[in-house]
């Protein structure tokens, strides 16, 4: 990286720090929650993720795929320490999109009744495996869910829904919607690091747009299995920057499943 690029990035990090400090003074600390997708088994990448969450003292919400879940994952998480909740990431993370449509598991060509049967079975699998660590929150694979499926989730016992972007488009009676807002990866052409400059700029834009809403939680999205070293390095620096002025919160608080801490 050229010297001018280094100076530019230092300025970007300083701007982010200043924006977070200004928000904390005006509205109170930013409420930060962290969701990571695609957990199935304990891997070196997941171990690294959980260790990072513990080192910065940030609760972590793992979106786990019920089909093919390694039963040993629950016991390993118990021994790993840290505050880790488990959400449900669809059922098998299998694309059911109709030809020419974008990837989707919770919709597409699947019959509603059959798909809901899978989701209910998946919920039972995760509840049995993780006990109170499991929260009845649906995280749609590819962050897409059709209305016919979303509307049926409360009947299966789900209390929350988390996809990506603005929450206003996904209002569902009986569900609290809390999306992720910043994905550290880009997916076009294969998973790859989105880049420091882009991610800082997107965070600053979110802070600007939500300047008047001090209660709005900011959702960070990661995918531990797809991180390269640049992603890991950014993630640690980003978390430490945010947490100088932000308050990390768990998914239980985000989705109103417990009384807020503090």
Q: Alpha-carbon distance between the termini?
A: 43 Å
Q: How big is the Rg?
A: 18 Å
Number of E strands: 11
CATH superfamily: Glycoside hydrolase/deacetylase
Structural class: alpha/beta
CATH class type:
Alpha Beta
Instruction: Give the biggest sheet.
Output: 9 strands, parallel
The global form is: globular
Helix content: 25-40%
Total individual domains: 1
Tell me the fraction of residues in β-strands, as a range.
15-25%
Q: What is the CATH architecture assignment?
A: Alpha-Beta Barrel
Low-confidence stretches: none
Query: Can you count the helices?
Result: 8
How are helices and strands ordered from N to C?
HEHEHEHEHEEEEEHEHEH
The CATH topology turns out to be TIM Barrel
Mean pLDDT across every amino acid position: 93
Q: Would you give an account of this structure?
A:
This protein has a single domain (54-254), classed as Alpha-Beta Barrel (TIM Barrel). The strands form two sheets. Strands 1, 2, 3, 4, 5, 6, 7, 10 and 11 form a nine-stranded parallel sheet that branches. The protein has a two-stranded antiparallel sheet with strand order 8-9. 35% of the residues are buried. It has helices spanning 3-27, 44-56, 72-80, 112-130, 147-150, 196-209, 229-242, 251-254, and strands at residues 31-39, 60-64, 84-88, 134-138, 160-161, 176-177, 182-183, 185-186, 192-193, 217-222, 247-248. The protein contains eight helices and eleven strands. Helix 1 runs parallel beside helix 6 (196-209). The protein is of the alpha/beta class and 262 residues long. The termini are far apart. The model has no long low-confidence stretch (mean pLDDT 93). 39% of the residues lie in helices and 16% in strands. Strand 1, helix 2 and strand 2 (60-64) form a beta-alpha-beta unit.
């Amino acid at each position: 990286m050229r010297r001018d690029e280094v100076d530019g990035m230092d300025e970007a990090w300083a701007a982010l720090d200043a924006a977070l400090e200004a928000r904390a003074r005006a509205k109170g600390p930013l409420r930060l929650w962290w969701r990571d997708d695609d957990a199935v088994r304990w891997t070196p990448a997941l171990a690294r993720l959980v260790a990072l969450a513990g080192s910065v003292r940030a609760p972590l919400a793992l979106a786990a795929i019920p089909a093919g879940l390694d039963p040993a994952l629950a016991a390993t998480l118990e021994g790993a320490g840290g505050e880790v909740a488990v959400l449900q990431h669809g059922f098998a993370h299998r694309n059911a999109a109709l030809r020419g449509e974008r990837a989707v598991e919770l919709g597409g060509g699947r019959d509603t009744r059959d798909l809901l049967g899978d989701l209910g079975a998946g919920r039972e699998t995760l509840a049995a495996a993780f006990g109170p660590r499991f929260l009845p929150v649906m995280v749609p694979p590819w962050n897409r869910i059709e209305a016919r499926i979303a509307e049926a989730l409360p009947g299966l016992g789900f209390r929350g829904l988390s996809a990506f972007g603005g929450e206003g488009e996904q209002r569902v009676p009986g569900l609290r919607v809390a999306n992720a807002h910043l994905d550290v990866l880009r997916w076009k052409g294969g998973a790859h690091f989105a880049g420091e400059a882009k991610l800082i700029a997107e965070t600053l834009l979110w802070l600007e747009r939500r300047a008047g809403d001090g209660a709005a939680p900011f959702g960070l999205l990661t995918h531990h299995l797809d991180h390269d070293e640049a992603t890991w390095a950014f993630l640690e620096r980003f978390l430490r920057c945010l947490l100088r002025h932000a308050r990390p919160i768990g998914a239980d608080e985000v989705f109103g499943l417990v009384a807020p801490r503090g």
